[in-house]
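hiii so um. not sure if this is the right channel but i have a protein structure encoded as tokens and i wanna go backwards to a sequence. like what aa goes where. can anyone help
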């Protein structure tokens, strides 16, 4: 893995072949969490690409944005609104975000999106025009 502790694996033919090898190896793992993580990696490779990062890694706003598929400006807005915490490189104005914070933020964002979708479906089911 690179020195930034962040790796991007695109979905392409060669990655697909490697994914099949990883899936076969994952099925033989005895640690359930490691097996689940490996299968999630394989699924990500097969489904458009995946980002792998150490939870202790620090990311730039651009790296955080790429990790969860949003714009850097959105990450900056979330920092400004206090929804994401950042630190600064020593003696610099360059922001750093913890990978673990980005993962937690994205999980909350997905859950909120599902709630909004369910609410819209409830309104439609009640007879509202959509």
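sure thing!! here u go:
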């Amino acid at each position: 893995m690179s020195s930034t502790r962040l790796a991007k694996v695109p979905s392409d033919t060669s990655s697909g072949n490697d994914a099949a090898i990883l899936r076969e190896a994952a099925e033989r793992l005895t640690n359930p969490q490691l097996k689940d993580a490996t299968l999630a990696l394989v699924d990500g490779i097969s489904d458009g690409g995946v980002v792998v990062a150490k939870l202790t890694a620090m990311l730039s706003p651009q790296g955080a944005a790429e990790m969860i598929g949003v714009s850097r400006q959105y990450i900056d807005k979330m920092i400004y609104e206090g929804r994401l915490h950042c630190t600064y490189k020593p003696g610099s104005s360059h922001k750093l975000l913890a990978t673990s914070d980005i993962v937690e933020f994205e999980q909350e964002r997905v859950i909120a999106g599902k709630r909004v979708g369910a609410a819209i479906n409830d309104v439609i089911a009640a007879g509202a025009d959509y």
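oh and DSSP finds five helices and five strands in the chain.
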